[in-house]
Specification:
The mean pLDDT is 92. This protein has helices at residues 2-26, 68-75, 83-89, 125-129, 133-138, 143-164, 168-180, and strands spanning 31-37, 43-49, 52-56, 62-66, 93-95, 121-123. With 181 residues, it is an alpha+beta fold. It is globular, with a radius of gyration of 17 Å.
Length: 181
């Protein structure tokens, strides 16, 4: 929490600017909140900069597509800057397993539930390995199945190893790798 207080004055102006631009760009309020599964399986709202525009098509289907500005934010993970507030409020840490949507972490069984004992993080080993997850999934014939059968089990394995081998120096290493990548 200390580091989030120190970083907040540096990040507040870019966050506010990105929210304003995203509001204009997407036609919706630029701060996006989504329920995620956190420590001990408790739900919380994660904060992000909105990157998707809702488009209605003639058959009544709703398509969510990233705007050009949204793609820029996602590419450099700038859409995640507001998560500094999640750290400040205590629902997240800087390093840990990424908080997942319901239907994943909240359904962990047995020894895999160790992942829920720690606060989810902005970055971590699985986040770094799958930094291009959207691109990987877009290349699959069935992205949902690929995510549930290949990526998710690998993330669980990576996150369990992280928790079992936790150290402050390891966290610093992940933070540095995140900044460089």
């Amino acid at each position: 929490m200390f580091f989030s207080v120190v970083l907040l004055p540096l990040l507040i102006i870019p966050i506010m600017l990105f929210i304003v631009i995203a509001t204009i760009d997407t036609g919706q309020f630029g701060l996006f909140l989504q329920k995620r599964v956190g420590q001990y399986g408790e739900l919380f709202h994660i904060y992000k900069i909105r990157t998707l525009r809702k488009e209605n098509h003639t058959l009544g289907h709703l398509d969510l597509s990233a705007t050009p500005f949204g793609k820029f934010l996602r590419r450099y993970k700038l859409d995640e800057l507001p998560q500094i507030f999640n750290v400040l409020f205590g629902s997240m840490s800087f390093v840990g397993p990424r908080p997942d949507l319901q239907g994943f972490a909240d359904e962990l069984k047995g020894e895999d539930k160790i992942i829920l004992k720690v606060k989810p993080g902005i970055t971590g080993p699985a986040t770094l390995k799958y930094k291009d997850e959207e691109s990987i999934l877009s290349q699959q014939l069935d992205p949902e199945t690929y995510n549930r059968t290949i990526i998710w089990p690998d993330k669980v394995k990576i996150n369990k190893k992280y928790i079992e081998n936790y150290s402050f120096s390891l966290d610093l290493n992940f933070i540095l790798k995140s900044i460089v990548n």
